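User: Show me a protein chain along with its predicted structure.
Assistant: Here is one chain, sequence first, then structure tokens.
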Amino acid sequence: MRVAMIGSGYVGLVSGACFADFGHEVTCVDKDKGKIDALNGGAVPIYEPGLTELVAANVKAGRLKFTTDLKSAVKDADAVFIAVGTPSRRGDGHADLTYVFDAAREIAGSIDGFTVVVTKSTVPVGTGDEVERIIAESRPEADCAVVSNPEFLREGAAIQDFKHPDRIVVGTDNERARVVMGELYRPLYLNRSPILFTDRRTAEMIKYAANAFLATKITFINEIADLAEKVGADVQEIARGIGLDNRIGSKFLHAGPGYGGSCFPKDTLALIKTGQDHAAPLRIVEAVAAVNDTRKRAMARKVQAALNGDIRGRSIAVLGLTFKPNTDDMRDAPSIPLITALQDMGATVRAYDPVGMEQARDVLNHVTFCDDAYACAEGASALVIVTEWEQFRALDFARLKATMARPVLVDLRNIYRPDELARHGFAYESVGRAGPVK
């Protein structure tokens, strides 16, 4: 089938490359000429394991193209995906749908023959209705069906998630659109991936409900971690004990510095605003967002406590800047409020991340960026692990101790065991365990 993917960012590029790998003819469209020129030159603008190779293979096979010409891409397409950004709107926190609606107007003027217009971007309930209205108003004679097909891609594992999904959600009541969507995803049938056909508004809500629930699990275990520290319990054993209950499950029960990234912060906020607009307040989700925002900056107090309050004028080394490993995404990363709080306390900060340093320079000020973990630790009074990159899971503690001003490790991801660090002569502070080991 012929696919036009409007938006060549994270979702659009991954989805377009994977559809092309299924054998479809895909044209990715973006207004950013620099991005399109880079893609045509073989450069992938985001870090995602395996994506560069996947894009190159499908470009070489002639199944994947990049252009700024939306009209030509849409004119020949059986399905047009809207995969543009929906950031939080400044001032009120609602999802900013400007790019979605602009894309709908441009698509309307380019449709030729029956076309399925698919909203892939994460959008509030009712957005598909407005996209349908915009197209009908702009081009009354256009023969199209507007479908919701939310994405469920984890950064760092997006290709695997696209090709081996837990579920595919398709929101439409149009039988012709169902046939087209079924054909697009037909290559996955051998994997027995369940396709859930539902109405459009329900599909839009499924995405937000899923993200809000996962954010709730993360925030729940983080609050349990705080209590565990006070009462002398171990949050990792607690998580294991409750996660073995198949009604709960073990995923997203890892205590840490709070959630970040491109989805959970903005999607929980957008869902909260939707609830308020419809007089159906989501009190649990409101609490989740508030607790998470407070938690990120509060992690600086853990560093302060590990140094017995003596932090002013100290050098603090931060390992891991991106919101999670295997991505260069700095959006709402816990490292940002942590570092800002440390600086407000009078500390100087050195930092290292295997992939996200270039992006971090745009959002962090007065930070010394280092070439590796050991250069980062040089002269530091404390080493703080913020992102659980694999490179940080087998650190040479003898080497670290020799280069640091003080042997103090604050492990916000619980990568290490307290007894292990004690053997190496480190003061150790973690999350959800009883007290620092010194």
